[in-house]
Amino acid sequence: MAYKIGDKVATREAYGNALVELADKYDYVVLDADLAAATKTGVFKKAHPERFFDCGIAEGNMMCVAAGLAAAGKMAFASTFAMFAAGRAFEQVRNAIGYPHLNVKIGATHAGITVGEDGATHQCNEDIATMRTIPGMTIINPADAVEAAAAVEAAMATYGPMYMRFGRFAVPVINDPATYKFELGKGVNLKDGSDVTIIATGLMVSMAIEAAKTLEAEGISARVINIHTIKPIDKDIILDAAKATGAIVTAEEHNIIGGLGSAVAEVIGENYPVPVVRVGVEDKYGHSGKVPPLLEMYGLTPANIVAKAKAAIALKK
Amino acid sequence: MNEAKITELKKLATEVRLGILEGVHAAASGHPGGSLSIADILTYLYFEEMNVDPKNPKWEDRDRFVLSKGHCAPALYTVLALKGYFPREEIANLRQIDSFLQGHPDMKGTPGVDMSTGSLGMGISTACGMALAAKLNGKSYRTYTIVGDGESQEGQVWEAAMFAAHYKLDNLCLIVDWNNLQIDGKITEVMNPTPHDKKLEAFGFHVISIDAHDFNQIEAALNEAKTVKGKPTAIIAKSVKGKGVSFMEDQASWHGSAPNDEQYAQAVAELKATI
After folding, report:
1. Fewest CB within 10 angstroms: A217, B45, B86, B171, which?
2. Is residue A8 within 8 Å of residue A170, measured between CB atoms?
3. In A, which residues are within 8 Å of B123 by CB distance?
4. How far is B171 from chain A (nearest CA, A)?
């Protein structure tokens, strides 16, 4: 699928399209739990019905069926909403996929508060946290459709359990598909800077770029890093940024507990302590509403990244 | 089945029971009761039924086995050892820090273990995945899974049952170890899953009920299962928890406790007397 910079595309769309486009190149099947229309595995179902298996509303069973397929040599994608993949089915993912280190790719959509109107029960701000505690689990949270499509192919080409986090809401394409290269486990330096580093993931990456522009206009030089692979995390790019800028602000559409902010703080705290201030959902449940006011309500905005960047700079010794 | 074969299988199953007790006694922990109740079926599966090669444990055309009631690992390990997957002596190291025989089955560490299990309700689902993979890959192997009667209180067992019937997994054979005991007491008193056979029939299974300790019935049921097309088969195997050791039989207290030296000696003497 040709995406253009500036287009607004949900990463779940890119996920579904990539499953279809790569069907002849890789050997896999796709499972869903009655959400194919929403997770976008439905486009794969339409194109390759013989390789698609609806498991009904039974996510725990789906994860274990995927594990059994993988144990018998068949790579399986298992899709449902993040809430049910990383929440309800946590233990199945941990024990049946993670522990035996099986080749299952979890395509979790509707992550974060940008689920919107469905509200708190469906807005999963905890999935990165739970998945991060599973040894050997790779976690990818792409920033846009281009990155999402590339991440899906990287998942197919790389053995092992992976959790891929996709959003419902259409977000701007920020990567040029002509030149974009996805490197699993590598952060991406999007902009250099010397006063502070904004480390962002998912839809917060485009906001981080905006925030950096605002800071620049105020005379503050901000580095911007996109972390698409939250686990294993790119320690080198984080530590380089800590050393070069001496202050870090993280930005994620996830609880500030256990997600990117925590992962970055762990690396910084154990290796090169500098201030780390986190932008994210501040240990709250979600709420129904349209996405733009929800993002405002939870402080997931360029303005809050700017404010927290200044706070991080103020904490420098 | 002729008498000589039955005698041979009974002797093997007794060896399995001795291994279960040796491992659990050495570890001073583990689950003897349910392990003893599945000893005969596991013996038959690995020595008569399943197409496996201990020299090539990952052979892709092999029949698969998933011990969904993973806490009965001592039975599986002993059968695997007797079948030649690893030395029988390893059983004495069950649950030890330097052993590959974990408290619950670990497919990455133990030769012959097809799936890591232990958390109840999951093994049957993974068995469904293996059976589905056989259909997708055009392979004729069959997948067997033993689920506990108490384990069947897990909702996921029924999610998996729906899946197996929906996708017509006639290459899947579910064996329910029906010993009517779980940790807290009688299944029927803790949380009654009966009528188990009717429930599985309603979920779309071909259901056969047998005596879990009668090799003729085990053989007949497994043969019948292979003739069933378009639906999975469930064998409800009525068993005795602790089977073969007089003081363990039909006692919930032996679900997850190890015999002391005296009890172990008595159990071994009882079992050896039958050979």
Report:
1. A217
2. yes
3. 64
4. 14
What is the residue range of A297's domain? 188-314
Statement to judge: residues A237 and A143 lie in one domain: no
Q: Which residue has the tokens 């609880």?
A: A255
Choosing from A172, A206, A229, the residue where a domain stops is A172
Position A1 in a domain: no
The pair of three-digit structure tokens given for residue B174, joined into one six-digit string: 């579910």
Predicted local confidence at residue B74, as pLDDT? 98
Mutate to test the interface with A, among B63, B154, B159 (most CBs of A within 10 A): B159
Q: What CATH number does the domain containing A127 carry?
A: 3.40.50.970
This prediction's pTM: 0.97
Six-digit token pair at A196? 């502070």
Map residue B110 onto helix, strand or coil: coil
Residue A61, chain B, CB below 8 Å: the answer is yes
Residues belonging to chain B with any Cβ–Cβ distance to chain A shorter than 8 Å: 60, 64, 66, 106-108, 114-116, 118-119, 121-123, 125-134, 136-137, 156, 159-160, 162-163, 166-167
Give A1's pLDDT tier (boundaries 50, 70, 90).
confident
Q: pLDDT band at residue B275, thresholds of 50, 70 and 90?
A: confident
Task: Say how many C-beta atoms besides its own lie within 10 A of residue A121's C-beta.
Answer: 11
**Average pLDDT value for residue range A11-36:** 98
Report the pLDDT averaged over residues B19-45.
Answer: 98
ipTM of the complex: 0.97
Residues A24 and A135 in one domain: yes
Q: Cβ contact (<8 Å) for A70 and B127?
A: no
Rama region for A130: left / alpha / beta (φ>0; ψ in -120 to 50; rest): alpha
pLDDT above 90 (res B181) = yes
Q: Respond yes or no: is residue A153 known to be catalytic.
A: no
What CATH number is associated with residue B21? Answer: 3.40.50.970
Interval A81-114: pLDDT, tens: 999 999 999 999 999 999 999 999 999 999 999 9
For the stretch A222-235, pLDDT in tens is 999 999 999 999 99
Test A71 with B130 for CB contact under 8 angstroms. Answer: yes
What are A109's two structure tokens? 């959509």
Q: Give the number of other CB atoms < 10 A from CB of residue B179.
A: 27
Domain limit, last residue, from A172, A207, A233: A172
Write down the catalytic residue from A13, A21, A50, A59. Answer: A59
Rg of chain B over all Cα atoms, to the nearest angstrom: 17
**CB-based burial label for B48 (10 Å; 0-12, 13-18, 19+):** middle
Chain B residue with minimum CA distance to A88: B156
Q: Which chain A residue is nearest to residue B139, measuring alpha carbons?
A: A72
Collapse the DSSP code of A7 into the 3-class scheme (helix H, G, I; strand E, B; otherwise coil) and give the result: coil
